[in-house]
Structures are given as structure tokens and as C-alpha cells.
């Protein structure tokens, strides 16, 4: 019984439709009832006007219309066009009303059929009485069943919409969590990169101090190395701090920091992947050069993530190739396979690995593109400039 007196929220367009419907029924069925039953036809408006609130207060409307119909039966007014309000009210409570009260309304509708047959067809033979009872009963039950079906379908659609909204919220939350975790991991890695640069600077400073008196040229060379290393480390650190939007107060891994992998570690990575059963070819074009620690780490992680995705999605027997092209201004990393990964809908999984690859590439001023190949398979292309953007 709770909620009967509480109005349901209703859009303005729906309120206007209900007002128009009730008005049209009053003009047609209401005045036809007046012409048919004269003074008794006034009761028709009592069954039609409440339909204005059929969606906001369906239970009250139904019981109000039934009360007017019961009064019509008691005073002996014949059936009239205004009685259509009973069916509209029954439909409204079955769609918009409380489920338990909707079933009670069906029972009341069945009782109304018996009352109508006993009053208006009392002088007919039993065959006509049975025919009218079945016909009216089928009409009442049909209207109620149609409304219940409409209610069930509406609930199902609402559940689907809510589920889709929840899935979208979960996806956004997981994506943000993936980015947050990736940033935390990159912050830990940049710690090792900067620590490596500072270690070089300390060693060069100690050596330069020792050689200052005996070999001024060696001391100058050490100072130049310190300057280059310091500028490179500072640029990398500023780039990272500009990317991270949260306070850098995360606790570091308690384990002893280890040197981060780079391009030189790729052969070992590829050998490990081959041992896992993936057919991988490795090709290097151009003239290899020494890369900044962060750039080498980015290239390594992109290849690692690309091979991991191939192992997960390409399927058995897939062939994979990894190529590095040392161009004049940038390093191009390509990881491609001929497996079935292209058959997976990109929207079905946002891909946390792809988020990580793009995040890493953006830190180094590069870009990553990934997607199915035209001839089948999947391809990841990363373009990583050798020099970070200036002006940081």
C-alpha cells in the first residue's frame, strides 16, 4: 500500500498526453453518455475526468472510477460509453501501479463482470448470459494482461539501461584505475632512472675532483658529462612531474631497486617469449645509438606489452615480428602478428595495456597507434623521438 498517495514523477509531455486523452474521452464518451442516460450520464464524467492522473496516481484513479461505476450499478443506470474509463483505469494500474494492487484490481474487474451480467442481462437466457460473461471477462483480462506485459517490458528495458550505465561506470573506473596504477609504476621507474643519472654524476664528480690537479682535461670532460647527465635527468623528471597530477608521495617498492631494461634487453625478452611458444622474429634497421634511459625503457615496455597481447589474443600458431628502426629523429617500434586478434571487437575491451603504452609514449613525447591490420592480425606502432620537447 505504500506509495499510493505519492505522485510518480512524470515528464511534461506525458502529462499533456494524459490531459488530452481525458479531455477527448470526456468530449466523446462523456457527451454520448449524457445523450443516452441524461442525468445518469453525469456519472460518466466521474469515470473519465480522473484519468488525467492515471499515471501519477494509478491506484487512486482506479478505485475512484470503480466507486463511480458501483454507484451507477446501485442506482440502476444502464451501461454507457463512459464506462470505457474502467478499462483505461485498469490498464493504468496494471502498467504504473503497485503489483499487488494490480492483481487486486483484476479481481475487482472480474467481480464487475459478474455484477454487470447479473444486472444488465438478467432477463436473457443462460446462453446469452454465459456469452456476455465470457466476452466481458476476456476483455477485462486482456486489458490487464496487456498492461502487465507493458510493465514487464518496461522493467526489463530499465534493467538493461541500468546495467549498461553500471558497466560504463565500471569501465570508466577501471580505466582511471589503470591510468593511476600506470602512473604509480612510471613514478617508481623514473626514480631508478634519476638515481642512475645521479650515480653517474657522483662518480664523475669524484673522478674530476681527483684529476683536477694532475689532468685538467680529464676534469673538464668529467664536468661536461655531469652537465649533460644532469640536464637529461632533469628534463625526464620535469616531464614526469608535469604528467602526474597527484602528489608524489607514493611509497617505493621495499625491494632493492634494480637497473631498468632497455633496447639492449629486447633479445633476452624475445628469447623468453619464444620459450613460451610464440614464433617471433626480431629485426633492427638503421644505425643503433645510445638512448636515454627513459626512452629505452619505454621502447622495451611497449614491445613487452605487444608480445603479451599477442600471447593472449593471437591464438596458437601465430607468427609475430618485432622491428626497431633507428631513424634520424626518432625510433620506430613495430610489433605485429598474423593471428586472430583482429577479430576481437575493439570496444569489447578498452585494453589497459594500450592505455599504458600510450601513457609511456606520451611521457617521451611519442605516440602509439594500435589496431587490426587490413590483411588480418594486429599491429602496434610506436614513434619515439630521441629528444624530449624543450622548454620544460
From TrEMBL:
Keywords: ATP-binding, Kinase, Membrane, Nucleotide-binding, Phosphoprotein, Transferase, Transmembrane, Transmembrane helix, Two-component regulatory system. InterPro entries: DUF7134, HATPase_C_sf, HATPase_dom, Sensor_HK_TwoCompSys, Sig_transdc_His_kin_sub3_dim/P. One of its GO terms (cellular component) is membrane. GO terms for molecular function: ATP binding; phosphorelay sensor kinase activity; protein dimerization activity. It is an enzyme of class 2 (transferase). Residues 15-153 form the DUF7134 domain. It catalyses: ATP + protein L-histidine = ADP + protein N-phospho-L-histidine. The chain crosses the membrane at residues 20-53, 60-75, 104-122, 128-146. Residues 182-247 form the Signal transduction histidine kinase subgroup 3 dimerisation and phosphoacceptor domain. Its EC number is 2.7.13.3. Residues 299-386 form the Histidine kinase/HSP90-like ATPase domain. This is histidine kinase. It comes from Kribbella rubisoli.
Amino acid at each position: 500500500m505504500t506509495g499510493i498517495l505519492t505522485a510518480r514523477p512524470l515528464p511534461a509531455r506525458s502529462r499533456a498526453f494524459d490531459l488530452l486523452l481525458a479531455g477527448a474521452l470526456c468530449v466523446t464518451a462523456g457527451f454520448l453518455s449524457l445523450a443516452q442516460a441524461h442525468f445518469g450520464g453525469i456519472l460518466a464524467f466521474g469515470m473519465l475526468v480522473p484519468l488525467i492522473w492515471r499515471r501519477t496516481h494509478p491506484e487512486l484513479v482506479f478505485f475512484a472510477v470503480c466507486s463511480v461505476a458501483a454507484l451507477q450499478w446501485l442506482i440502476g443506470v444502464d451501461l454507457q460509453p463512459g464506462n470505457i474509463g474502467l478499462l483505461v483505469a485498469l490498464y493504468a494500474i496494471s502498467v504504473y501501479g503497485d503489483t499487488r494492487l494490480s492483481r487486486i484490481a483484476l479481481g475487482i474487474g472480474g467481480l464487475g463482470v459478474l455484477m454487470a451480467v447479473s444486472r444488465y442481462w438478467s432477463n436473457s437466457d443462460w446462453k446469452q448470459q454465459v456469452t456476455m460473461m465470457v466476452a466481458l471477462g476476456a476483455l477485462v483480462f486482456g486489458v490487464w494482461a496487456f498492461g502487465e506485459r507493458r510493465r514487464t517490458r518496461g522493467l526489463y528495458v530499465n534493467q538493461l539501461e541500468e546495467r549498461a550505465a553500471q558497466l560504463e561506470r565500471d569501465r570508466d573506473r577501471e580505466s582511471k584505475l589503470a591510468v593511476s596504477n600506470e602512473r604509480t609504476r612510471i613514478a617508481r621507474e623514473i626514480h631508478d632512472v634519476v638515481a642512475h643519472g645521479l650515480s653517474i654524476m657522483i662518480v664523475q664528480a669524484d673522478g674530476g675532483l681527483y684529476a683536477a690537479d694532475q689532468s685538467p682535461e680529464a676534469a673538464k670532460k668529467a664536468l661536461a658529462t655531469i652537465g649533460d647527465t644532469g640536464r637529461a635527468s632533469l628534463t625526464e623528471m620535469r616531464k614526469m612531474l608535469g604528467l602526474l597530477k597527484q602528489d608524489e608521495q607514493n611509497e617505493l617498492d621495499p625491494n632493492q631497486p634494480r637497473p631498468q631494461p632497455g633496447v639492449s634487453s629486447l633479445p633476452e625478452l624475445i628469447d623468453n617469449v619464444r620459450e613460451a611458444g610464440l614464433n617471433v622474429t626480431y629485426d633492427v634497421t638503421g644505425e643503433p645509438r645510445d638512448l636515454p634511459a627513459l626512452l629505452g625503457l619505454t621502447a622495451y615496455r611497449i614491445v613487452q606489452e605487444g608480445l603479451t597481447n599477442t600471447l593472449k589474443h593471437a591464438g596458437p600458431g601465430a607468427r609475430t615480428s618485432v622491428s626497431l628502426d633507428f631513424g634520424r629523429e626518432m625510433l620506430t617500434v613495430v610489433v605485429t602478428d598474423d593471428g586472430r586478434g583482429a577479430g576481437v571487437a575493439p570496444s569489447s575491451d578498452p585494453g589497459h595495456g594500450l592505455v599504458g603504452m600510450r601513457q609511456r609514449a606520451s611521457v617521451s613525447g611519442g605516440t602509439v597507434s594500435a589496431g587490426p591490420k587490413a590483411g588480418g592480425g594486429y599491429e602496434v606502432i610506436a614513434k619515439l623521438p630521441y629528444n624530449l620537447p624543450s622548454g620544460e
